[in-house]
Amino acid sequence: MDIPVYKTEGIILKKTDLSDTDRLLTVYTQKFGKILVRAKGVGKKESKLKFLIEPFNIYEFLLARSKNIDVLANSYPIKEFLYLRQNLENLALVIYFAELVDKLVVAPEQDENIWALIVRAMEVLDKPFKELSKTKPQAQARGAEPRTVPQSGTGAWVKTAFEKRLLEFLGHPSFATQSKLSPKEKLNYLQSLAGDEIKSERFLRSLSLIS
């Protein structure tokens, strides 16, 4: 009996070791929202897939259905965001966005708005930071642009825009109107929704990307 397989575009948000050779991938997909995928044998030296499961790229995944966690059969790169790995500030922001999505999105459910938000945020940050500083808020895709650029800089308005839109898409629009909240109060609010610490926020703070 053939094992049912299916395809979907997706972005790996997180990669966790299951064993010496297997990895658990947290993937946000275009068709199904957030899912878990088991990548078997990718830790072996001879594995052809180990270079095709990098976080923060867009892939087309071929997945085999399983009773528990679907298994990665193949992966095809669609778009690689090279500057996300060459610039620490850009990478720090994307790691933060990935953690927010992972911890705030609970169940697999297709959401084109969230998919587009993640892709657009990565497109905006996929450039040298000196070029990013020239990017105007008006250039952002639907739902991703803040009305004003915060005084703390470009990284801050990208972060603010992503947080606001993600929470709105998840049914928390009131957060977008709470402009008077301090950074600490906003973090506490996000962590209360996530039910967990947002660990990558400390990384942003260490790089002075947020106050």
From TrEMBL:
Q: Which InterPro entries match?
A: DNA_rep/recomb_RecO_N, NA-bd_OB-fold, RecO, RecO_C
Keywords noted in UniProt: DNA damage, DNA recombination, DNA repair
What Gene3D superfamilies does the record point to? Nucleic acid-binding proteins, Recombination protein O, C-terminal domain
User: Where are the membrane-spanning stretches?
Assistant: none
Q: Name one GO biological process term.
A: DNA recombination
Q: Name one GO cellular component term.
A: bacterial nucleoid
Q: Ranges for the DNA replication/recombination mediator RecO N-terminal domain?
A: 5-78
Source taxon at top rank: Bacteria
Q: Does the keyword ATP-binding apply?
A: no
What family does this belong to?
Answer: Belongs to the RecO family.
Stated role: Involved in DNA repair and RecF pathway recombination.
Full protein name: DNA repair protein RecO
Upper taxonomic classification of the species? Bacteria, Candidatus Portnoyibacteriota
